Structure formats: structure tokens, C-alpha cells
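Journal club prep — side note

Before the paper discussion, L.F. wants everyone to see what a predicted structure for a comparable chain looks like in C-alpha cell form. Sequence:
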Amino acid sequence: MRASLSIAQARRVALAAQGFTQPDRTKKVTWSHMDRMTRQLNLLQIDSVNVLVRSHYLPLFSRLGAYAHSALDERTFGSKKRAFFECWAHEASLLPFDLHPLMRWRMARARSGNGTYSSMDRFGLEERAYLKDVLDFVTRNGPAVASEVPGGGKAEGGWWGWSRGKMALETLFDQGLVTTATRQGFERLYDIPERVIPPDILALETPSEADSIRRLLDLSGRAHGIGTEIDLRDYFRLPVAETKTALAELVEDGTLLPVTVAGWKQQAYLHKDAKLPRKAGGSALLSPFDPMVWERSRAERLFDFHYRIEIYTPAEKRKFGYYVLPFLHHDRIAGRVCLKADRQAGVLRANAIHHESHAEPGETAEALAAELKLMALWLGLSGVEAGAKGNLARALRQAL
């Protein structure tokens, strides 16, 4: 691999590392396909918004095509074939069980009052007796929701509007003393790890904090293929000073190779196992919480694509819509579409559709129409209806 890459080459490296190399996304998807892809990504970010579909379902669809939701459900929150645990990684995420030892340093920091979230650290220090009572309750009674916790109280205007009981359970979750047993709707049921995580996983040796961060940074490099220090650190939300140390060590042993990328001001690092294929990409709609775009400055550097989620923006100030998915076509992001699964009407609604300035509207609309039809089929909807908003709306309606 060369020491200097063009932006097009960097894009292909990144897309290949993220699994966008599937030539045919209409083939049957099995659990083995899903398992390999999830391990390539390392994690699936969770989000509560359900206007389309929960975000953790989308990355596998984007890369593999339509699969049975139940195939992922039984591996994430099922009891018999479970393959993932839930923790704070890149925000709340699902990770393969074998990464559990690498996340224990973060749980240990939270228990010491030096975690990622100061509100929970403070609550943990100020409410130690109550935390013990809540942990004892869960240990005695098994999986519990926040409303079942004694003395939990009602939701208030504090941190995320959580009740005292919810705050206690989330603090214990942050500390690794409870975990997600399953979810009802989207509400967590909390239980102690010994009843959720397999004994052989809990028995694995806990690496040192320094070794854990170094190994996570290695995984970040593999998953990104190429990236800046900030890109690699952001994947698992690693601490700044410790990442700098780990980065220097990975450069020294040849795991990460310093390279330049045309147009990038920052130093880039190429993973030693990264591939530079002749082609990478395809046609795919990306979750707002997809690793390909979740670090917004990286999306701008790789794709010249300025992306901000507008869920919390007042409706009259939104530029592109409420729940907007970037549309990858070939090796560029060619457009974006505001989507809603209208389950009552049985249709997938494209409420606003835009193409990027570099994209040819006709070709983009044809490719997007095919992708929307595939998504509608995957979601069990009868068809796609396109609205009138956006510079690609007319072309998409014609293509549909």
C-alpha cells in the first residue's frame, strides 16, 4: 500500500473496510452472513427513533440486503441463541460477546466515579445506598423495568427526564453491575450479568486498561480502514490521552501506517490489513447512526457530504426532513431521503428527496427507486410513495 492516497482511493478503502463490497444484495441472507458482517463492524448502535425502523437493524440491511428481523432479534435480545451484549461503546450499542472483556475498563471507570457520563458518576457517588438497594432488588427478583424498582419515583425534568429508579438502573448499567436482559418494545429490562452473559465470557481474563484501549483502537482501524486520530478514537469513544499512547504503539509495531490523503489536513492512518479494491460501494440507504457517516466531519472529508440529523430541529427550520438517510451510490453519497414507514397505510413514504450536486438525477433516481422498493419489501410494506419536496422528487416519482 502506498504512503499517499487520493480521496477516491481513501473512499474505496473505507467502503471496503465497512463491508460495502457485496455485488448482489438480493440473495438470501443467513445468520452466518450477518454474524461475519457484525464482527467486521464490531457494533450496532442503538437509537430509540422508530419512524422508519430501529437503527440497529439498518447497517446489516445496507450491506447485505433484506434479512429476517427475527434472525437479529433472537441474537440480540433472545435467551437461547443470544450473541450480543449491550453497553456504552459508540453511544448505546450491541457488541459481540467476545468483546465484553475489552469494555470492562469503561465499567471499572464508572464504578470509580470517573466514567463517561458525569451525571451518572455523581448519582453513583451520592446515592450509593440506594444503588445497593436497587441492585439487591434486581438480584432477588430477576429482570426488572425502571417502574418496578422500589422508591423509583416518577420521571422528572432532570437528566433525560429520568426517574430516580431509572437513573439508578442506568448508573448500574454504566458500571456493568446490571445489563440488558431483553427489551419490551424499546424499554430495557435490567438483570445482573450472571444471568444474561454466558459464564465462559464472564470468565475470560480482563485485559489492562491500556491493552484494552490499544486493542479497541486496532479494531477501529480495521473497521474504518483509514482514518484520522479523531476518526479512530471516535469509533469506541476512547479517551484522548490514552488513545494517543495507543496510537503511537500501533504505529511503532506497524499495525497502523501513517499516510497522507489528498485534501485532508490531518494525518491519516491506514490499517495494515486494509484493502484497496478497484471498486467498492454499491447502492444503499444508510442509517443516520451508521459507522460510515456517524462521525460527520469524516463524512465530509470522504464524501464531501455535509450531514446533520434534524430530528431535534423545529419543523420549519429543517432543510432536508425529520429522519433523513444518506443514499450511497457507487462510491459516493449521491443523495438523501426523508423516510417514514407508514405502517397503518402499509407504504414506505419518501417525504423529501434530494440529490447531491455531483450526482446525475436520472441515474440516482433509478437506483434510489430500486433501493426503496427493496427496503419496503424488507419492512413488510406494500410499496413506496414519493412526496413532492426536494430536487430529486419528480425524478424519483417517475422512476417509481
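L.F.'s comment for the group: The longest helix spans residues 361-378. Keep this in mind when we get to the figures.
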